[in-house]
């Protein structure tokens, strides 16, 4: 699986950053590339939480159903999705910074299931790396801005 990781310092405490990052219903008003979110499971954010996210990326709009597969409250969570013969995984981590802020990181990767898909992924990886990292960084910037506003 090819994985991309970006990090960012946030001038807000971990609890506030966690609250913004796990507010699925509020995501479209925080993250510019997310057009809509439909939460599919009731209850608090945790393992098994499902949602459908519609976002515009690289000029295309797509909807994916995602599920939380791991949670360590106020430390990390992982969400996974299967789409177009690829299994995707995103992990967010949150750690206290010495200045009272938060070190936030996001890792994202995809594993194609077919031989042709794997070959195409290897071929296009250098071209997509910059675009994916730019998108991940923008998501973290948007979450940070919302958390810093309080």
How would you describe what is shown here?
With 150 residues, the chain is of the alpha+beta class. The chain has one domain (2-149): Alpha-D-Glucose-1,6-Bisphosphate, Chain A, domain 4 (2-Layer Sandwich), CATH 3.30.530.20. The protein has 3 helices and 7 strands; from the N terminus they run βααββββββα. It has a 7-stranded antiparallel beta sheet with strand order 1-7-6-5-4-3-2. The chain starts with a strand and ends with a helix. The model is unreliable at 116-120 (pLDDT under 50).
Structural descriptors:
44% strand; 31% helix; Alpha-D-Glucose-1,6-Bisphosphate, Chain A, domain 4; seven-stranded antiparallel sheet; 150 residues; alpha+beta
Query: Could you give the order of strands across the largest sheet?
Result: 1-7-6-5-4-3-2
Total number of strands: 7
The domain count comes to 1
Q: Largest sheet, described in full?
A: 7 strands, antiparallel
Topology:
Elements: E1 2-10, H1 14-21, H2 27-30, E2 34-39, E3 50-57, E4 60-72, E5 76-83, E6 86-96, E7 102-112, H3 115-149
Antiparallel strand pairs: 1-7, 2-3, 3-4, 4-5, 5-6, 6-7
Helix pairs in contact: 1-3
Brief overview, please?
The protein has 150 residues and is an alpha+beta fold. The chain is built from three helices and seven strands, in the order βααββββββα. Helix 1 crosses helix 3 (115-149).
């Amino acid at each position: 699986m090819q994985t991309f990781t970006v990090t960012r310092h946030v001038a807000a405490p971990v609890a506030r950053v966690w609250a913004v990052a796990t507010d699925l219903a509020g995501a479209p008003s925080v993250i510019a590339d997310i057009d809509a979110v439909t939460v599919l499971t009731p209850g608090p954010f945790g393992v098994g939480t499902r949602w459908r996210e519609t976002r515009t990326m690289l000029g295309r709009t797509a909807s994916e159903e995602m599920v939380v597969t791991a949670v360590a409250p106020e430390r990390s969570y992982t969400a996974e999705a299967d789409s177009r013969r690829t299994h995707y995984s995103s992990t967010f981590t949150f750690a206290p910074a010495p200045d009272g802020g938060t070190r936030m990181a996001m890792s994202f990767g995809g594993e194609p299931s077919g031989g042709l898909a794997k070959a195409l992924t290897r071929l296009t990886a250098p071209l997509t790396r910059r675009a994916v990292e730019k998108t991940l960084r923008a998501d973290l910037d948007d979450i940070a801005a919302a958390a810093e506003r309080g």
